[in-house]
Specification:
By secondary structure, the protein is an alpha+beta fold. The chain contains 8 helices and 10 strands. The chain has a 5-stranded antiparallel sheet. A 3-stranded antiparallel sheet has the order 7-9-8, covered by helices on one side. Strand 2 and strand 3 form a beta hairpin.
Length: about 290
């Protein structure tokens, strides 16, 4: 009887061992298959995104749209890949979809700012107030648009600093696109002395500024009296140029204003003060009033 008990125990242990081994083997195979699916799926997603972007590039689609479409396709296909792998493990995808929906609501409430940036990014892509390569002022930052992402836009400022701005901040604020028009105006001032001949100064500056490289002939250079101060008249000097040459024209015009007026012999504008000295009789009168 003891032998029968031992044989029964051994048989039961052997069955459990075989069962555990079978489950472990099946689970291990599924794990390896899931890893294979993930690697192959990621490779296929990468290939699909490249094919779509390549097709759009042949149609000469804007680079901004290319990056945006690539990001949306990558995120969407990755979610589908995860759902497929979970379905392979026997997890009900309908339940998973419900969890995603519930999680999406919770995440949406917690990350409302990110979702607002995402929506604003979509509107920027559709309405196209600017594109990659444009020189703009957006969200209070001035620079060249480097990239328009799902949630933020990257600007490269004139001092070569990459600055990221939330798309919602950009879309809800004023946007200035300096690259959209074929030319822009450079606004500068020239101070004249009160005794200077303003007509001669205006004619001289128009001639000299118009000769600066990259200053447009049309519209012509504007030089007019802008205002007056205690020193004398102030001239507005306004040449026009393409956005790419703005700072070159800006600095060269400043040099021309200084050098042209000096070479032509115009008086140096210096502030003056009138000093009135009281006579002795006036001082005696004031002293007597204070004593009384």
């Amino acid at each position: 009887m003891a032998n029968n008990l031992v044989e029964t125990t051994v048989s039961t242990a052997s069955k459990y061992q075989d069962l555990v081994l079978q489950y472990a083997t099946d689970f291990g195979i599924k794990i390896l298959a899931a890893i294979a699916f993930w690697v192959v799926g990621r490779w296929l997603i990468h290939m699909a995104v490249r094919m779509v972007q390549g097709s759009l590039e042949k149609q000469k689609v804007d680079p901004t749209v290319l990056r945006y479409v690539g990001s949306v396709i990558t995120v969407t296909l990755n979610i589908l890949l995860v759902i497929g792998i979970l379905g392979y493990f026997g997890i009900q995808t309908t339940t998973f979809a419900a969890l995603i929906a519930a999680g999406g609501i919770a995440i949406g409430m917690a990350w409302s700012g990110l979702l607002a940036n995402f929506a604003a990014g979509a509107f920027i892509i559709v309405l196209r107030p600017f594109k990659v390569g444009d020189f703009v002022t957006a969200g209070g930052i001035t620079g060249t648009v480097k990239e328009i992402g799902l949630f933020a836009t990257a600007l490269n400022t004139p001092d070569n600093v990459v600055t990221l701005i939330g798309n919602n901040k950009i879309f809800s604020d004023t946007i200035q696109n300096y690259s959209l028009n074929p030319f822009r105006r450079v606004d500068l001032k020239a101070q004249l002395a009160g005794s200077a001949d303003h007509r001669a100064a205006i004619a001289l500056l128009k001639e000299k500024v118009a000769a600066i490289p990259n200053v447009l002939a049309a519209p012509a250079v504007d030089v007019e009296i802008l205002e007056f101060n205690l020193v004398g008249p102030v001239l507005a000097v306004r040449p026009y140029c393409h956005n790419d040459h703005y700072w070159q024209v800006y600095f060269d015009t400043n040099k021309v204003i200084k050098e042209a007026l000096a070479e032509a012999g115009f008086p140096v504008p210096t502030p003056s003060q009138v000093l009135s000295l009281a006579t002795p009789s006036v001082l005696e009168t004031l002293a007597s009033k204070f004593k009384s």
